[in-house]
What does this fold into?
Amino acid sequence: MKRVIESKEVAGQSPNYLLAKFQDLVDWAVNSSRANSLWPMPFGTACCAIEFMATAASRYDFARFGMERQAFSPRQADVLICAGRLPFKLAPVIRRIFDQMPQPKWVISMGACASTGGIFDNYAMVQGIDTIVPVDVYVPGCPPRPEGLLYGVLLLHKKIKGESLFDAERRRDEQPLDERGLRLSPAEIDEVSEPFGNSVHQFRSS
Amino acid sequence: MTLQIPGRLRETVARDGETIVYVERARLLEAMTWLKETPGQEYDYLVDVTAVEFRDRERPLEVVYFVRSLSCRADLRVKVELDAAGDLTVDSVWGLWHGADWLEREVFDMFGITFRGHPDLRRILMWETYAEGFPLRKDFPLRGRFSRAEQVRQALNANPEAHYSLDELSIADAWGDLPDDMRERLKRGERGVVPE
It folds into this structure.
């Protein structure tokens, strides 16, 4: 709250305490509710999904962080958790699932393959799901341990608590695909899909 | 045993208790029919159909059939050699083993080998509109032929529901028995052309 008051003072006007506090109060209430009752939509395609299930099971139990209900319907989900590699054949599927989720919605990219393509730098695999859907939290690992995923969830909580209903810069509105059917520009996709690490030396061609 | 198989055999290799029979391409169907239907052979189970391309460009491409005789408890590998630069067509064994349907589709999808007589030769692993070629061929670059941006564009513009043809759903055969409302729905649908 202090931050908002200060910004008002810098603007050279008398601080509007009531409005500032009201907005902060609303944001606090809304964001806490959202952050502490996330409903994940698991999109498990590979071994990361096993770790995801371990995270959901009793030992790690992400219900402790409000993710009590896993929504297997995108219509009732807040967080899309892509756990595993994503082939190009599944790209329109995950995009449709993401589009079917109501706002506000967030995406966690779990594991190396979902985040970058991982070891699958080949003809069939999407090199990072951020070329398909906007991603909020990347959880590294191959696969990440449940603690890693929980840490990612807590980071997402932090991010959600910093959002604002009243400031479009501090939230993400719906981002439809452009007329080419792309989320990023072709140059950006080529750039983020560049080979790195060991796969630079990997080739199979004539 | 193998010497009785009709068709000119180039070579028969017995190694590690496995028998590999090389069959001439034109006589494949004849040999397979003989293997399946001759009493005492009865190779009634087609385990797998696959293909091999070697890094050595001099060696031909091989289509490999794994067959098993359940009654004789015998396994056999039948190979057909194809010139990689030439005509990549072999006869389909779908008429003998219906299980060859998806196996041959997979070989077609990955290697571009055409199976003559296959009822529904479409891609099976890659999507049907995939235009980059045949991924398991040695001249196929590992990351595909298109740029990543183009691959993403084509993938995102694909229709995820348009993968099943009417033939695959076997509705074409049952067309006459379907109720009227279902026929109407299928006519409006996108899953293939409804036979009149």
